[in-house]
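#dry-run=false #mode=assembly
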Amino acid sequence: MTFPISGLTVDPLYLIGAGFIIGVLGGFFGVGGSFIAGPALRAVGLPWNFAVGTDLAHIVGKSIVAARKHRALGNVDMKLGLIMAIGTILGAEGGAQCIEVLKRHGNVNTVVSYISIAVYFSISGFMAWEGIRTLRAKRGEKSEPASLGKPKKDETSFSHITRKIQSWHIPPMVSLPASGIESISVWAILLVAIVGGLFSGFLGGGAGYIRMPSMVYALGIPTHLAVGTDLFEIIISASYATFSHSLKGNVDILVALVMHTGAAIGAQIGAVCTQFFHGPKIRLAFVPLPLIGAAIVIYTLITGHKI
Amino acid sequence: MSTEKTRFAKSFLVEIAVYAVLVVVYFFLCLHFLGGWLKHLFDGDRRIYACVALGLMLAQGVALEITTTALLRFIRTRTK
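#status=ok
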């Protein structure tokens, strides 16, 4: 079947299937799944600029589902989310402009392919290292119950960096009671958001794989709140990025709508599956996934063929 | 426990089957009625296309969330 906007000829079942897998991953691991979505669209011959924009559009729909669930669980810090949305939008616009520059130079596919491979390998490496480290540390300690009414603090191996960033006194300062932070510089939050936004605008997706760990390790946001708040702010920032990419002619909304139908049901199944697994083992299970994305990109790059 | 899991799996299979029918119908309606119009907007006026694209995605996000949640609740109630 040919999609008239991008001229892509693909079986819609492939798109629904890809969306379903991405949805399951999103629901299970709490990530957007752009490391699979981008390469999956690229693999059927969609140019990278279309793959990035279309992936962002489908992320909007998927984040609504997940954020509504997290909001009901009290996992969304609205104040933090709104501040981060500003930074993410700025960063995403920067990323989208980089795509435009590469489009003009005619090498968007090659450059984005190489950068995405590097990013996917880095994510896998970091997650493997962090997961193993946490599992080893957990063996030697007893888990403490969370205190009711107070946001649970996450102890990480990056606590010294978190304390240093929280001690920056660059006005304006803001308090985030929902996240258990008395005072933090708005600039620190914006910096984390801008970096995440750059990846989002450049590689597509919500870039939760960059922003979520940054929120936990750099800003000191408890993990469950970081996941919920990240999803909430992705609705705002991905909406903006979708609008921006649409103006630039990088979004095939029909492809995004079809992908999202699979993702919506996949997200529900993934969320249910988390009841049967938990903790760092989930993070370790995540490790091979970005490598699959990298493998698809490498295959497309080397052979120049569609899958 | 295993009976509970079997029931759970059954309810999901039924949900997926119902959902698949809905999606196929929706997909063909969407592509048939909107395809040409969206292509025309994409070529003619990108600003309107951007607004419509975002609106469609937001609307579908909310609609599918309500549909899947309602389906899940309905089927679980029926299988209990």
